[in-house]
Amino acid sequence: MKKIVTIQDISCFGKCSLTVALPIISAMGIETAVIPTAVLSTHTGSGFTGYTFHDLSGDITSISEHWKKLGLEFDAIYTGYLGSDSQIQIMSDFFDDFGKDDNFIVVDPVLGDSGKLYAGFTDKFISEMKRLCAKADYILPNMTEASFLLDIPYIENCNEDSAKEVLRRLTELGCKTPILTGVRSGELHGAAAYDSERNEFYFSYSKHIDRHLHGTGDIFASVFTGTVTLGKGLQKALDMSVKYISDCIEVTMPCLDEMWYGNCFELCLDKLIGYVKE
Ligand code: PXL
């Protein structure tokens, strides 16, 4: 069995980060080890106020020390939401300890959405995140995150030409294969990737639905990491992630009143399992 370790927070309620990554990667038939970076009562996105935040930085280091003694190895290391500047340094050390020639690192540089930073993030955090991106094989920013990583204005409707330009600039951070989500082509919405070693661009789209659903980026990153871990290649990884996101949005739209804080991703896990078998 393939084995991924994913390192991000547990938002106890709100369907994002570990409560999304764990079921999705497991459904893809991949063993999922986790290191929780923090425990929050809810996610910090719009709609929730007064959330609790318990930092687990000390535990990350002791878990990693124990794993080193056990000699554990992973096919992929995938980080998501990180809670502080120092956690980024801890991740960087973790990459040094567990990164190998035959595994790969995915950094989802969770910073914000819809042109805005998430609560609590600072300029220092952004510059630390840039340094973490340099150590990754794949980074998966949305347009908001790309604009903060590159110090460029947020592009509301990013077309293919702009996406190519943003992707080229993202490689200057030091990551050879950046992926940009939230790319638009006419009535379509999707993602683009750039393999800078081959100088090739990849695109994948589905129907655009004009509604932001929280946790979508975490679903994308989980499916993408799982698909690459299964050895299916970059185009297939984009296609499966975009298709599954579209399935999730479609099942969530009829129950938005109840489901304003996340996606009903559980209702279409069967489709994802089908895509893995294709
Ligand atoms: O979905 C990204 C995410 C993960 N974890 C926490 C968040 C967010 C986005 O707001 O607040 C705690």
Question: What percent of the residues sit in helical stretches (DSSP H or I)?
Answer: 25-40%
Given the C-alpha coordinates, what overall shape results? globular
CA radius of gyration is 17 Å
Low-confidence stretches: none
Number of strands: 11
Order of helices and strands: EHEEHEHEEEHEHHEEEHHH
For the sheet with most strands, the description reads: 9 strands, mixed
Query: Based on helices, strands and strand pairing, what is the structural class?
Result: alpha/beta
Q: What fraction strand?
A: 15-25%
Mean pLDDT level: 96
Bound molecules: 3-hydroxy-5-(hydroxymethyl)-2-methylisonicotinaldehyde
Strand order of the largest sheet: 3-2-1-4-5-8-9-10-11
Number of helices: 9
Q: Tell me the distance between the termini.
A: 18 Å
How would you characterize this protein structure?
The chain is an alpha/beta fold and 278 residues long. Helix content is 40%, strand content 23%. It is built from nine helices and eleven strands. The mean pLDDT is 96.
Based on the model shown, name its key terms.
278 residues, two-stranded antiparallel sheet, 23% strand
Topology:
Elements: E1 3-13, H1 18-27, E2 31-42, E3 53-55, H2 57-70, E4 76-79, H3 85-98, E5 104-107, E6 112-113, E7 116-117, H4 123-133, E8 138-139, H5 143-150, H6 160-171, E9 177-185, E10 188-195, E11 200-207, H7 216-229, H8 234-252, H9 269-277
Parallel strand pairs: 1-2, 1-4, 4-5, 5-8, 8-9
Antiparallel strand pairs: 2-3, 6-7, 9-10, 10-11
The protein binds 3-hydroxy-5-(hydroxymethyl)-2-methylisonicotinaldehyde (PXL).
